[in-house]
Specification:
Length: 102
């Protein structure tokens, strides 16, 4: 019988990695705030969404341990992201085409 302290299938991430990811998230949050005060036209939204996507990826990979999980879990996460993109494209296509036919 295995001891409770032994977890051969579990990956342990060190504190320096968590601190590095936390620092990256804080820097990206500061960059998002800074971009909000700069007028870049429609590029503001694009830049903020790219930063948000980067932050979400960091959280998924490190804090939710998706980087070290099975391919099945990674596949389901990828399917969720693809589904989200489909919903965003459908919503944007509706929103952007509202003034065309009136």
């Amino acid at each position: 019988m295995a001891h409770p302290e032994e977890h051969p299938l579990e990956h342990v991430v060190g504190v320096p990695v968590y601190l590095g990811v936390f620092l990256a998230l804080m820097v990206l949050t500061a960059v998002t705030t800074a971009v909000a005060f700069v007028d870049l036209g429609p590029m503001n939204v694009v830049i903020m969404l790219l930063i948000a996507f980067t932050k979400a990826t960091l959280v998924l990979l490190w804090f939710m341990h998706l980087k070290f999980s099975s391919r099945v879990s990674q596949g389901w996460a990828a399917a969720a992201v693809i589904w989200l993109l489909i919903m965003v494209v459908i919503t944007l296509s509706d929103y952007l085409s509202r003034g065309i036919f009136t």
